[in-house]
Amino acid sequence: MEKKYKVLIVHNYYQIPGGEDTVVANEKKLLEDHGHTVVFYSRNNSELKVMSLVQKLSLPFATIFNFRTYREVKKIIREQHIDIVHVHNTLSLISPSVYYAAFSCKVPVVQTIHNFRLLCPGALFYREGHICEDCVKNGLLCAVKHGCYRGSKLQTLICVTNTKIHRMLGTYRKLNYICLTEFNKEKLLQLNRPGKKQIINPAQIYIKPNFTFETCIKQGKETER
After folding, report:
1. Strands across the sheet containing 84-89
2. Chain-centroid distance, C-alpha 53
3. What span, in angstroms and rounded, lies between the C-alpha atoms of 215 and 56?
């Protein structure tokens, strides 16, 4: 008999809804349809609009490690007896602290790679109308020069600082990854430079494309494609 798991899905919604949100909803439904228990933890960047001045000033630090996220996720893992933590997006309010909450409880973490943000602060490898991989070749400070995140050098610097700190801490090496395509995986592995300490463990990367649900009227059942 197939073992059923308790999965904590973690997702930070952007202020403008996007495809990641659809993937999260679909994966939650798919897991539940197959008998797994899903617990959901989310934050929404629309919270930024109602933050106090003090909260906004502390946001650069919370983006790197959010103690609220750490406490709340750790509590959920322990009280709900979570088997796996599946993270989709951590920017800006959840932060990589979600990983450390899971590490402290000795629960494995899966991170779905929806974009290229671990290598490119702009997330798209695209700048000013052309493909750009300057940050992979010459370092993340290239993004600060061009203000690649939201057109702001300051906000880009915060993103770059966050990524560099967690690279140095070895945070990303402790994660399991779901990539959507082989191309996605190849790009992610560019984090590992020859002759240097690995940032990503190649053995912990898996390929799983996105899917949609399609109702099969003739068969009288629902399948995923």
Report:
1. 37-44, 6-13, 84-89, 109-113, 176-179, 205-207
2. 27
3. 45
Q: Is 13 in a helix, a strand, or coil?
A: strand
Q: Which two tokens stand for residue 92?
A: 């800006």
| DSSP structural state of residue 42 | E
pTM above 0.90, yes or no: yes
206-212 long-range contacts, CB within 8 A, separation 24+: 206/176, 206/177, 206/178, 206/179, 207/178, 207/179, 207/180, 207/181, 207/182, 208/178, 208/179, 208/180, 209/180, 209/181, 210/23, 210/26, 210/180, 211/26, 211/30, 212/26
102: enclosing H helix or E strand = helix 97-104
Q: Measuring CA to CA, which residue among 23, 27, 163 is closest to residue 84?
A: 27
pLDDT of residue 216: 41
The pLDDT tens digits for 54-85 are 999 999 999 999 999 999 999 999 999 999 99
